[in-house]
Design brief:
Length: 724
């Protein structure tokens, strides 16, 4: 087989970000044509969420990679459905036809495949998707037997004699005379976060062990787990790392659910002899994953190389496939009219529905605030005694651009059509609910709540269940013994996302269901505002322990960001020292931590040996990467860092992972005496909005403070490319 690869294109950043636990016998390099063993390419997608707009580009890339690598599999790790108007209008038909065109070999179920289970039609749309699929679906821990819509569709077995449009625990594919086993797993959390109706879920570890044993019984020693359990999701449920460490015999995990963008394949940290390689592409069909593997005669991975192919890259666009474009055209035309209908309202700035820390599943956002406000306003029209509302972050699916707000944008943000629920709760129960909301923080949780009328403060590093410090209703502390009326959606009110307190209230008859739909309340609220100028207002505050940071200040936000990313612990348990001058050692440590760089060799600086071992390694790693330099064999770790020097460090860090930006100019009038690299670095900081000046000056010779560092590092984080 001829492998078409460009290993030389692997950047220094990629090598520096490699996972530290890799065994010597499994090399992270593209399998060579001369390598003995069996070569296999796995193309993969996950969490595409009905983003069909990139399907023509995905089709092109699939055809291209298949032509180069005939021994290939095309797999999808679930959540192909829900999230855009393509699903709202056509309930899976578009996704099914496109995946058939692309020639998928198998797909596993994501939790969102079950979102329509509570509708009057139940899982009719999902059953239709399964029947129309020209590939098998895999559900090794699922049981559809109690849902008559799936009669004759599921076979709870591992087999080589599979049929398209059916559901199996696992299948065996013959590829160039070699047997490859593939089985599927879906997160056990699904009944808590979706509408599964009568579908039942078994333990993922037990199901995986059973599948591996069955494959081995049938002579299969190359095994792929196609999972929708998350790369590093909550250990209370399931994740790929735990799966790899608990089940021997899995060679590859093609994952989904956490929307994790793994720029490189990751070798799991296990105690087993043979390696397990984990991959995941991110979200929304933005990337197609490629994993090239070489197996030895015993079925062990001896070489691997994973990469992502961007499908939405405007600088290096992927051509649209003509067949996929033609297939998609009538559907796009039909939803265009819906998308373009205006609500008659305008957003002053982007209404933020992003993911990640401080996104809708791990922080307050302006969009979450507007949605919760709309829910409260809608509930008050029905029951004036309602005092607050809360919206689960998992129900906010996208952002809304600045400018005219269209119906299409609203439907994309809130695609599930959840109805209103009005619930009566005690103050003590609200504390339990708030605790559940923040228990995973700073990790994402679909159950993270956005509030209207309530203000919640919590310590995100305290033990789960003991985090909430204060809940105020319109500025006044809650009375834990008193009853209050609030609003939420019926998914949450019935205990969705694991809210047992709400499930109990529902069972007790303390929830009324007026039937008003969430997106209707949202549009009504937009109409009452006309112009939407929403802000983050401090409704949900993750506290920090530093008493020398002014509450509500700009610096507090930046330091909070670093604190909950474990990038700083302050200068003491209660101080951050924002006005203290930043030293070279401190700057190096901050940047090395955010880049996750690790030293490959011993330090060459003679004056850092008295520092903490971790600091020595961080300085050495940055020097190896060319981000910092010394002089005459010394680093001068206690020397102060100027603003221009700090800009230079960040620019070198940026250029390590990105193509260098050229032709940038700055409007600062006090940097002309500096060399070209420094001027370019300052211009880059301004262009990326990492740093700013004042009155046309950057003040390059001023000493940088720890507050400056907090701002620049926090603003730089979105540009970091990670291999986790």
């Amino acid at each position: 087989m001829k492998w078409v690869k460009s290993i030389a294109a692997t950047t220094l950043a990629a090598s520096l970000l490699a996972s530290p636990g890799f065994a010597a016998h499994a090399a992270e390099t593209a399998p060579a044509a001369t390598k003995e063993g069996f070569n296999l390419t796995i193309l993969h997608s996950n969490d595409t969420h009905s983003h069909a707009e990139y399907a023509p580009q995905r089709t092109t890339k699939i055809k291209e990679l298949r032509a180069a690598n005939p021994n290939s599999l095309l797999l999808d790790a679930g959540d192909a459905l829900t999230g855009t108007l393509y699903f709202n209008e056509f309930t899976g038909e578009v996704e099914m036809k496109l995946m058939n065109l692309m020639g998928y070999d198998a797909m596993t179920f994501g939790n969102h495949e079950f979102d329509l289970g509570s509708s009057p039609e139940g899982h009719a749309a999902l059953a239709k998707f399964v029947k129309g699929a020209e590939f098998p679906l895999l559900g090794g821990n699922l049981d559809f037997s109690k849902d008559p819509l799936f009669d004759g569709l599921q076979f709870q077995t591992v087999t080589k004699d599979f049929q398209n449009g059916k559901i199996y625990n696992g299948i065996i594919k013959d590829i160039d005379g070699e047997k490859v086993g593939i089985f599927g797993l879906t997160t056990e959390e699904t009944p808590s976060i979706s509408s599964v109706a009568n579908v039942q879920f078994a333990n993922y570890i037990d199901s995986a062990k059973k599948a591996v044993a069955e494959f081995e019984k049938q002579g299969v020693n190359k095994i792929v787990a196609l999972t929708h359990i998350g790369y590093d999701d909550s250990a209370d449920w399931d994740n790929d790392k735990l799966l790899a460490s608990a089940v021997e015999g899995i060679d590859v995990i093609v994952g989904g659910h956490t929307h994790t963008k793994l720029d490189k394949a990751v070798k799991a940290d296990t105690s087993f002899k043979n390696p397990t390689i984990i991959v995941q592409t991110g979200q929304y069909s933005e990337n197609l994953g490629e994993l090239d593997l070489t197996f030895d005669d015993n079925g062990a991975v001896v070489e691997y190389f994973g990469q992502l192919h961007a499908l939405n890259n405007k600088e290096n666009p992927v051509a649209a496939d003509a067949d996929a474009t033609k297939l998609l055209a009538p559907y796009t035309e039909k939803i265009a009219a819906v998308k373009q209908q205006s609500t008659g309202n305008t957003a002053v700035s982007v209404l933020d529905g992003k993911r990640g820390l401080w996104g809708v599943r791990a922080g307050e956002t302006n969009l979450g605030n507007v949605i919760a406000d709309g829910m409260l306003a809608g509930a008050k029209k029905i029951d004036p005694e309602v005092q607050f509302a809360f919206q689960n972050g998992g129900g906010i699916r996208a952002s809304i651009d600045a400018g005219d707000i269209t119906v299409g944008e609203v439907m994309t943000v809130m695609p599930f059509g959840n109805a209103l629920g009005i619930v009566k709760l005690t103050g003590a129960e609200l504390y339990e609910i708030a605790e559940h909301s923040v228990k995973e923080f700073p990790k994402e949780s679909g159950g993270f709540l956005h509030f209207s009328g309530l203000q919640v403060e919590f310590d995100g590093k305290a033990p789960a269940g003991k985090r909430v410090q204060s809940i105020k209703l319109n500025g006044k502390e809650l009375d834990k013994a008193a009853y209050y009326k609030g609003a939420t959606n019926t998914f949450t009110a019935k205990g969705g996302d694991g809210y047992e307190t709400l499930a109990k209230a529902y069972a007790d008859g303390r929830v009324s269901e007026p039937g008003t739909v969430d997106f209707e309340m949202f549009i009504d609220h937009l109409n009452s505002l006309k112009t939407v100028d929403a802000k983050v207002e401090g409704r949900i505050i993750a506290t920090i322990p530093f008493t020398d940071i002014a509450k509500g200040s700009e610096t507090e936000g930046y330091v909070r960001d670093l604190y909950y990313r474990d990038l700083t612990q302050g200068t003491s348990a209660t101080t951050y020292s924002p006005n203290a001058n930043l030293t070279r050692a401190q700057a190096a440590s901050f940047i090395a931590r955010v880049l996750k760089l690790e030293a490959k060799g011993a330090t060459t600086f003679s004056d850092i040996t008295s520092l903490e071992a971790a600091t020595q390694k961080e300085i050495t790693a940055l020097a190896e990467a060319g981000i910092v330099q010394g002089q005459n064999g010394k680093f001068n770790p206690t020397a102060k860092v100027t603003r221009s020097q700090l800009a230079l460090m960040f620019a070198r860090a940026y250029n390590l992972q990105h193509d260098a930006k050229t032709g940038l100019t700055s409007d600062f009038n006090d940097i002309s005496k500096y060399n070209e690299e420094t001027q370019n670095a300052i211009a880059l900081m301004q262009d990326l909005k990492i740093a700013s000046g004042s009155n046309g000056k950057f003040m390059p010779s001023n000493n940088a403070t720890r507050a400056h560092m907090a701002k620049m590092l926090s603003n730089y984080i979105p540009y970091v490319k990670e291999s986790k």
